[in-house]
Structure formats: C-alpha cells, structure tokens
Amino acid sequence: MKMSRGEMQDLLAKFSMNNPGYREALLKDPKEVVAEQFQMKLPEGIQVKAVQETADTIYVVVPHVVEEGAELDDADLETLAGGFLDKEANCEDATLSTVVEINASLF
After folding, report:
1. Coil, strand or helix at 93
2. What is the pLDDT of residues 64-73, one digit of tens each?
3. Which pTM value belongs to this model?
4. How far is CA 18 from CA 4, 23, 24, 97, in A?
C-alpha cells in the first residue's frame, strides 16, 4: 500500500499525541524523525517543518503552486506525483503493521 503525504502526516500526528518523547523529537528535528519513521532518505533540498498547534490558533497548509508557464523537469514531476514521498507500507486487516508502529517507539 502506498501512503500519501496526508496519510504520512496523519500517522505522525497520531504518534506525537500518544508519545511525549516522539512529539519532542518531532518538534526538535522533524526531518530526521520523518526519515527514520518512514525509513527513507530525504534529499538535501527538502525541508521538513513541525509546528505545534495551540488551542487558539488554526493552521492551514497552502500547497505550492507552480507559476503559470513554468515547466517542471522529470524529477519535479515525479516528486509532485508522489515519487519519493510515496512509501510502501505493510498492512494487515486495514490496520498499519508494526513496521511503522515500532519506529514510533524509538523516541
């Protein structure tokens, strides 16, 4: 099963709500946590930012839009289409396997 960015983000949020050490690590070094969590190497140019919500603030992520007329190269198209951010996950009975859940216990 492939995971979208949204599904990956949902997992990170779930783990951070239930594990204070994981939450602290995610806030301190989100790129490292994402790389370890999903067992992938993120390219140098990719930034990962973690923002802690508050009770009186709502955050909206506005997706990047390529300027009209700008052409994307094959690598950019692959990234936008899922590319390196699609991650295969082992699933059983529609629940995530321990492949992902074990990684949460590292923090």
Report:
1. coil
2. 787 776 666 6
3. 0.59
4. 22, 8, 12, 17
